[in-house]
Amino acid sequence: MVNESRKEREYLYREQRILDIARPVIVQEGYHALNMNRIAEQLEYSKGTVYNHFPCKEEIILALAIQTLEQRTEMFQRAARFVGRSRERMQAIGLACELFARMFPEHFVVEQLVRIPSIWDKTSATRQQQLYRGETCCLSLVSGIVHQAVGAKDISLPPGMVPEELVFGLWSMTFGAYSMLATNSNLPALGIVNGYEAVRSHLRHMLDGYGWRPLDAEHDYDEVVHQVMTQHFPTEAAQIFQNA
Amino acid sequence: MVNESRKEREYLYREQRILDIARPVIVQEGYHALNMNRIAEQLEYSKGTVYNHFPCKEEIILALAIQTLEQRTEMFQRAARFVGRSRERMQAIGLACELFARMFPEHFVVEQLVRIPSIWDKTSATRQQQLYRGETCCLSLVSGIVHQAVGAKDISLPPGMVPEELVFGLWSMTFGAYSMLATNSNLPALGIVNGYEAVRSHLRHMLDGYGWRPLDAEHDYDEVVHQVMTQHFPTEAAQIFQNA
Amino acid sequence: MVNESRKEREYLYREQRILDIARPVIVQEGYHALNMNRIAEQLEYSKGTVYNHFPCKEEIILALAIQTLEQRTEMFQRAARFVGRSRERMQAIGLACELFARMFPEHFVVEQLVRIPSIWDKTSATRQQQLYRGETCCLSLVSGIVHQAVGAKDISLPPGMVPEELVFGLWSMTFGAYSMLATNSNLPALGIVNGYEAVRSHLRHMLDGYGWRPLDAEHDYDEVVHQVMTQHFPTEAAQIFQNA
Amino acid sequence: MVNESRKEREYLYREQRILDIARPVIVQEGYHALNMNRIAEQLEYSKGTVYNHFPCKEEIILALAIQTLEQRTEMFQRAARFVGRSRERMQAIGLACELFARMFPEHFVVEQLVRIPSIWDKTSATRQQQLYRGETCCLSLVSGIVHQAVGAKDISLPPGMVPEELVFGLWSMTFGAYSMLATNSNLPALGIVNGYEAVRSHLRHMLDGYGWRPLDAEHDYDEVVHQVMTQHFPTEAAQIFQNA
DNA sequence: CATGAATGAGCCTTCATTCAT
DNA sequence: TATGAATGAAGGCTCATTCAT
Question: With contacts defined as CB-CB under 8 Å, which chain D residues touch C158?
Fold first, then answer.
């Protein structure tokens, strides 16, 4: 019995390791540099063993997407527990998002890969649904805060815009910025020296632009950051900012 | 002599066609669905002929990136010729950007591909520099408007932020949004029904958030749109909105 | 002791089931669709257990061949017990052969597989001899009836032909016909609608051609069929012709 | 132009060689001993070149089946040109069939392989139809002679039997016998020393059994054999019986 | 005995690139 | 310059067999 569970633990651990091996390859060298041989070698197991975990290469990609999405959702959930006004809770989400992007920079590449029909079509329906559920869940979490803000009259959306579309804006900004920060090594040369800080500023001003109360100037932004960091993401913050 | 130039024209035309063939494959089926055989077949020339134009597959990718970047720059230049206040000129750029994204949705995928070391390293220094120049040029064009705005006191950037970082924000938003709109077919299911309109709104509110004068409410936004569309991008607008 | 024998019974039963699982796969999907994993899964035991029964995949094939051959021999023996003239006893064998072919259509494919050197060479000498013995036994049984017929002057073989060669003729006809009936789905389209009946007719006319007394017209063929069916193969006949 | 045709000739010659390489492997070592690596090696060309001729392994099998079927049809056509009574013409077909079986012993194995769904399903519709056409053509040729015989009152088929079913009988006998003669090395040990002669005898007696005029005893069988051999199949007969 | 994870040789197939014509 | 057959490295995947538990 004990052995059973040990084996199972080892199995899950190895599954995790496969994903951890795939991750950096994808960000740094691209999808087509990822191959089963290489994974097996780095895993120090045979190819057959890798195939015992994932029936094909594409499932690894999808598993990666699901895993980071779940991680993201979990971090968003933690952030959403911040007690405060809607704008402050959204700010907490933004921080969670930045932490997430720094921890899983490959997520943005993987998210696009997974949409490619030739990849998507080879994956199992089970995992596909897991991804869809994750996406819906993550989006709902954030749009829920917008709904709350609208309900509390903290914000009034422009006519014709639904909360999901506001979330789409935040998502686009972070997706675009963090994608580029993860893959475009030319940014500093172009004058973008502090990308992450810039994103934070852009998000704040964008929400200000929408008149989301309390405006940036109306509350203690730094205090919220500090609270979220220390109370909701102590380990993550330590991990990311250890050198800063 | 006449034949010479006819041949040259044909040569350039064929080069263009190679890129036009590669384009949709990359957006719709991904990089690894793009192969020389397929290009040659669609081109109705032999593989050898394709190799006379591009020494390797990677150069095609880079050429694609350069070409769309140049197209983008050209469109931005045209937009920048809009006579008006800094905010209005920026608005013109935003419109140019949307038109560009609708015309070349693959650009955002190609931009990421080109950064992958295994691809980048196989390309020629000449073309690499062409890309860098293009990027710098395009960015300068946009940041130039921000500089103008700062000079004209239409905007005052937050302390520590350089104009390039503001541009980075606009770029991130559009890059992220248009990437997703081009590849993520699940967006409507998530409630994002009018992505392009949402992006326009987000950009306006973000600039409002930064206090860029004249604010959205202080000038006739629609009038600017109309002028830019009809005077600077008549053919593009017609092409894109023919069905709307 | 009781447990011992129960275990042994279970063991033999499982061995039987392995063969029963392999059978339809080979006829319907071919040898290379048969793999140990699949067998183990359908058996609902582990691969290791299958290997406890058969040391390699090839032995399963050989065991299948032996088993159906033994079944065939047993059915031929039963048919040979028919009391009557030599021609009638041969007719009984023919019926047994048809029943056998309908019950074990895979036999004809397996018989060919087993001859393939790369398969044959991996099997044990013990089982190889079992097959040889079975073949000899089965053939002797049939050629014995020919010998009887020759002795009783019911038939006189053409000069130079030995009884075994006459049997070879019957065997070829049935092997060829039943092989095709089992695997060639195109026969109806070619106009062969009642293959089994045709085979019966061909065999009768062939024996008539050899002048085997009593000729088809000289005895009550249908009566012999009826007797053999009801007295020697009641269960088999019921099983095969249940729907007819 | 001359070069073109030389290339083309070489190409066709190589295609032929691929089939000639595959042939003996399949009879002697079975389908699963046939692999693209091996073919390429024996061909002394690269694997890629083999794939330029056949898009997959299965197409090689089907091409083999088609080729031998066409060869068979061609030989049957030649035999059918024999001028004489229906029975004599059928006898000519029988001889053609024996010559064919001796020249292409693998045909009978390939014919069965091709029916396996996992193989059939991977082949192109074009080649599939070629096979069907070949089959129909070959069968029609033979059943045509039966029709002629019926028309000329040389034979009267048993009630309920169509000419195609009589052909099925001849086909079964030859298919079964020649399959076994090609693959079963144990036949001599079982007393079958002259298989081919036995088949000839069986066919003659079977047709006699059906009362096909002129009966075996009513005409000079050997004379017909001699004529067909020397006039219709001089090279084939020489090739096959060179050692006899 | 039963298990089933692990192995790894081996197979089919793809495709960027070369080069003789 | 255009061609496209030829190449062969590389990659995805299968599966018979082993063996520690």
Answer: 201, 205
